[in-house]
């Protein structure tokens, strides 16, 4: 028997299929739907970054929160701060875009989704792929996926800020539909963030004796329950943040009348 090593060509390639697919079901629906949904989200995100109607008191569109430039409306600035100075030549959303985008882009669920939906690597289990070589996430650029755990801390901060925005809107306008839309969005964003695999590991993943750390064990148990719904929370929070952002912009543009907002 020929022994293969970790660096041998046999170990660097996917298992080869003689047939195009071993599946008899409509396996192509998942990557196709994923491609369409993610493409729509990316198109909307790109438009939202350049749209200037992102704030109408007391509502702040999530895609541009926190707003940290002097070009931001005074009520939209986080605690009145404007640490990035006069960035009027760039949309304020560019200043914080990398934090939530980096967290989602490196998320384990999103990796599986866009690897299948965009790169067809592989498009589905038991289906051949067009790539002849496979290196996994061991080389550039995919080795950068390992920074996910650091984006987790940034995502916690963003979740806290969106929660602050939602609570502030609820206090100012408790009967406003927009206030409750922002509350639901903040809850889903925080739940998705806490359901992250990195959060589960940070909470108590490296402990050898749970009995010696009962508080961390209880926290780990809670996070583990959320982690079981990570995929569902990832999708729900993606739709909620886009929906909440669009709603605020419609109110700011006057398309949705404030008496009903």
From TrEMBL:
Keywords carried by this UniProt record: Membrane, Transmembrane, Transmembrane helix
Membrane-spanning intervals of the chain: 27-50, 87-110, 150-171, 177-196
Name of this protein: Integral membrane protein
